[in-house]
Amino acid sequence: MKLFQHSLLSAACACLLLFVVTSCYGQQSDSNYRIAVIPETLSLEVDETARLTGTVRDAGGNAVHDSVFFYSLSRESVSVSRSGLVKGLQPGTFELQAYALTPGNQRLTATIPVEVSFPPITDIAFTGRPGRMYADTRRPVTLSVTDAKGFDRNPGEVTLTSSDSSVAYVDNFGQLHAKKPGAVTITAQAGEATARRRTEVVVNPVTTIELTRKGEQQTRTGDVVRFTASPKNAEGRVIDDMPVEYSLAAQPDNNRGEASPAQVKEDGRFVARKPGTYTVLARAGTVFAEQTIGVEARDIQREVEVVGHALVGDVHTSDLWVWEGVDGNDYAVTGTWGGNGEAYFWDVTDPANMTIIDTVTVDARTVNDVKISEDGRVGVITREGASDRKNGIVILDVRNPHEVEIISEYSEGLTGGVHNAFIYEDHVYAVNNGRRYDIIDISDPGNPETVSRFELDTPGHAVHDVWVEDGIAYSSNWDDGVVAVDVGSTPAADSPETHEVGTGSPENPVQLGSYSYPSGWNHAAFPFRSQSTGDFYVIAGDEAFPNGLFVQDKPTIPAGWIHFIKFEGGWDHPKEVARYRVPEAGTHNFWVKGDTLYVAYYNAGLRVVDISGELMGNLYEQGREIARFVPTHHRGRIPNAAMSWGPHPYKGYIFVSDWNSGLWALKLTD
Amino acid sequence: MKRVLLLLVLFLAGFCHHTAAQTHHLYVAAESEDKVYQLAFDARSGEGDIRDSIAVGQFPTENEGPHGINVGIEGDYWFLSLAHGNPYGWLYKFTTGGNKFVSRTELGMFPASMEMSKVTGLLYVVNFNLHGDMEPGTVSVVDPRAMTVVSEITTGIMPHGSRMSEDGRYQYHVSMMTDELIEINASALKISRRLSVAPEESASASSAANPPGKTEAIAQPTWVDPHPTQGLVYVANNKSNEIVEVDTQRWEVSRRYNTGKAPYNLEISHDGQWLVASYKGEGATGIWNLQSGKEVARITNSRRIPHGVAIAPDSRYAFISVEGIGGEAGSVDVIDLQALQRVEVIEVGKQAGGIVYWKTTY
Fold first, then answer.
1. pLDDT digits (tens, 9 = 90+) for B28-40
2. Could you tell me which of B49, B10, B42, B30 has the C-alpha nearest to residue B352?
3. Which stretches of sequence are listed as region Disordered (chain B) (predicted)?
């Protein structure tokens, strides 16, 4: 027995020893292999190809096998086949990876640096106005620069010189300064590429400038005043091609550490943010003219009265719609976010006593959007997070809001989730999985039918929301900005140009125009024609959470603002002319009624903004804010934290849904 | 010799003690909560708890849907697919334990399950395209160090269930709407084989020969898992209520098991003894003995919709994520594979789905 125990122990120890030794030996063995790639680095031109070969070698440098595979870490800039055929696609420094197995099945990797050189610049062209300047003026030198592969290159790579600096010279910022009459040649050079432009400097004939203004004599902050400078020669003739620069001197009423209180654009438009006295200067060469303007406070602020509040504290509240029911009473519907798939129906006939009169529960976690048809008979709610992952929309009979009935559930092609929807003339425009919007005929609400889809064709395109007015759908598309689409435009449709009514239809949506901006935060869109000026705008709103969003426990600080886009000269000519930006806060949904903008500005609450007259600059800083209300409640979903989601001005009241505190009814007081 | 004996006794005693006192650590994703939960289950006390909850995504007011989750082969990072983007989904990378966000990269439409290959060190993520047109989907192959997509492999319609062979040489997934099991050569980054897993009498009707958009999937497979030691893979046929065993040498179906309603996920235990399958259609988990080919237990889950399966390395416990419906919280059911009963329920966020075993501590 003793011998048996001894043998057993010995065997166990031997096994342990063998295991340890084998493991160590195996590791040492595999660590001696490496991938040898030839060449070890690559330098390529764009479109040039090269062949990599890889072998697995042992410690002695002997080739073991050549089953080495390759891939690129920058496929759009340098490609490589599995077997090692490389092609440079774009200039820059990149990496390829090689991988293989050791005989012991351990993974080996190697990195191959690749330098794809920039092609030489081959073409430089002067753009902009022809080479004639008046003495004592300046203008930027503009260039078009391309390389041997047709890539646009930075004009900063080009050196600019003048043949006679005493006549004209180029400064470090690419500005050409004309000093005295004469002729010079400006040379633009990069490598072997050269372009020349002869510039003639002529006598500056301007002796006077007539500076006039157009606009209200009684100027308030936020009012845009148009200054026009007419440079004239000694005979009083206007010199049309004389460049004029505008600037201003400011004397704000409150000058204690005030930043720039006004601005003047290059076309002479002026707007003041603060009351004070301002002098606008116009310069043409060495000749100046000035005009002083007094600006008063806009003084339009009003108080907000809380008429009613219905706390929803157990779930986040999402979108809101208010309508007059077929019985003449007033009703509202609100969605819920991250909850149990509920939509709440409210009687808001007496806004001081808003009560839930019915609840519709569907298989969803979020009912983000709620909409009611214009005749108050049909409702649509959107679904996200359905347990069977078939989201889509739910169509409701809301003729009796006390007993709302589900007419149909429609998820055909919409299973990815519908975040937003809009009802317009018996059709639902449903945002489909953030990719496109589907247009669904609900003339027979029990049998909805998709009649078409609208989807952009840009790389990585997306859509967040859509709003339809007079047959034009305005969608908000993150990076792709706002997009206007004719889905059956009517004669009443706002348009920046004369267009053929009914170019598109629900079955055949036709894109009219679009505007995008660098942040890619476009979340909502709303068209509006100014009642005071007749100007047509599309307002684009942002949504962004650079500081995160806190669903449970603490307030959130979103970001983003409202962009005012003017299509002067047609759908193909969008221009962002103004913004409304509250600092340290972020926008969500908004509404325009008359010349007043109502913004649910998330953590900054409801903002009511005067958008009458021409718009320019940041309206927030111009005293255009009429009122604000920051809704919070100590028993809110997140206590004491405003997160205003959607406003709806209705019959003299402003209804607001707040993510944390439910439904509010507000009124502006005099 | 006494010293050696003492060391061996201590070693064995310590080993036995560790087995009883081990704690199992997992991650589970809650798809409608946009959160991932780090869980621990103490085998000695039989109690589980949440060690951390991690908010994920970029658009908090929209549901981005964390769906697939896995831990890298080195164990330093966990990877998460977010189903909804603008409109493409994302792959996120976090540190294990610290749960710090590292980086992310954009993938295809509704990226779902994933696994890393020992051979290539690459991550293979199927883009389920659950909400798109019936068109061929893709498998995104990602370098997890650089978090860069290095290849997109076109595959069947609605691919799902990305799992690697034990040696890391092959990736397996299923094509839900063409009733196929598909094998990818992990090194060549190419599809190497396809096999219909539909019931024989209907296989022709659901073959890949059907034009896109006209498929009539009979089996609708949703998951696949290779056997750890044998040349077999197991496929969950969600629609035809069966589990299919495929012989990878002969590349043919070798056995079919009739299961509970709508088997969705499955996993083979590391000792190769058990197959655990979630029956999404009946709120239960099936435990199969692979040697006998019999279902030895069908255990009712704590909620109605069981989703994912993860099994501890010691093959003792199975962890089932359970979705819940509507506002109902999700959960993770812990099943003792020896006792064949549910021993713990850990409450997590809504629509618990992707689940992965992380590590064992003692």
1. 999 988 999 999 9
2. B30
3. 201-224
